[in-house]
């Protein structure tokens, strides 16, 4: 059978350009500087196959390969315009980086003096630039340590305090207890539970108080020679309202100090200092001033930097964590340290700008695009997202479009993620850099006209 087919069309098949010939085309040679040979050969063989099947004319094979390679990237990730109004969007990689941080990544991508003092030629400590920037941004901290992410920071702190028994404990080798309020045993996202993480270290969790009310006295009653530390966690992604109580940091600090144990605060979002717009969001500076020994925060939430876990606090407390063997396993890479330092030293991060976007300016931009599209502007509240400032609305606006435009936008180039809500597609400009407005308008225009055509077909 196949013999017959081969003989039926031998001539044009023989004319399909051969791989070795295609590999010598100047455009293909250029593509090989960006994309690996396996990838390039994959593109070539897919087009040759299309030609063999008769779905691509033989004379168009070379041109099609050149065009395909022009847009071929070594990366499977796609840039997305975030038109949801959710600033720290977990599924879109949390914080977008500032211009300064992006430039820092470029620099750090090569050889850099990450562990070398170029003046002396001696080895220097890793990430000291990021550490100094953190200490400048947060004067209440005596020292700082940067690790992989917030979870790793918590893991390190809990491990260090649960496994290094206090010299005055009766049984110096038993695991120490971590005191934590029942109201703060949270699950973050994707089923990730803080309790599971902490217990995986071998620490004994000692739950105190109740879900809605925990008092200082509850901690005081549980405190003993087996206590490793007091852990206070900011329940970042929900709010308990009504009959609630929690012990404040200052009084917990007093209790911890009386018993000679450290007070560790997991703040999650990681505002450096108070933000008027987010009154209930705790900040690192206030927490340290109120007496926390260690404060933990993520780098890629409200701080607006790369994924990182920040540990700030008292000198001895940080030194103890830094010298723990686990610190090496959770250490940050040069890219993170560079981007973090630049985030801290650069101008406002995109996260800060989006959270504080001026409502009148947002309205003007939204109205301009909506007018071009012949669509309406509706009030729309954005969110901080990423487990920060739950329930706090960021008042703004959206372009109101038919629901099915959302999927076309998502699948388009550039990909645009809008919010689908109550049967409508809402395009919120809060997290869209103004320089992307023209691109966004073009994408919506296309998706919207496709929608109109789709509707016509359905109607006819
Ligand atoms: C987000 C969060 C974490 C985890 O931080 P990652 O950087 O995501 O690992 C831990 N604790 C709290 C309170 C959080 O909000």
Question: What does this molecule look like?
Answer:
- The chain is of the alpha/beta class and 460 residues long.
- Helices cover 41% and strands 16% of the residues.
- The chain has helices at 2-8, 10-14, 19-23, 26-31, 37-52, 61-70, 99-108, 128-137, 150-163, 194-200, 216-222, 249-258, 284-289, 315-322, 325-329, 334-345, 350-355, 359-373, 405-411, 437-459; strands spanning 80-83, 116-117, 122-123, 143-147, 177-181, 204-208, 227-233, 263-268, 294-298, 309-313, 376-382, 394-402, 415-421, 424-427.
- Strands 4-10-9-8-7-5-6 form a seven-stranded mixed beta sheet, sandwiched between helices. A five-stranded mixed beta sheet has the order 1-13-14-12-11. Strands 2-3 form a two-stranded antiparallel ribbon.
- Strand 8, helix 13 and strand 9 (294-298) form a beta-alpha-beta unit.
- Helix 5 packs antiparallel against helix 6, helix 7 (99-108) runs antiparallel to helix 16 (334-345) and helix 18 (359-373) crosses helix 20 (437-459).
- The chain is globular and about 90 Å long.
- Residues 1-6 and 456-460 have low confidence and may be disordered.
- Bound molecules: pyridoxal-5'-phosphate.
- Pyridoxal-5'-phosphate (PLP) is lined by residues 149-151, 154, 188, 233-234, 236, 266, 268, 298, 309, 387.
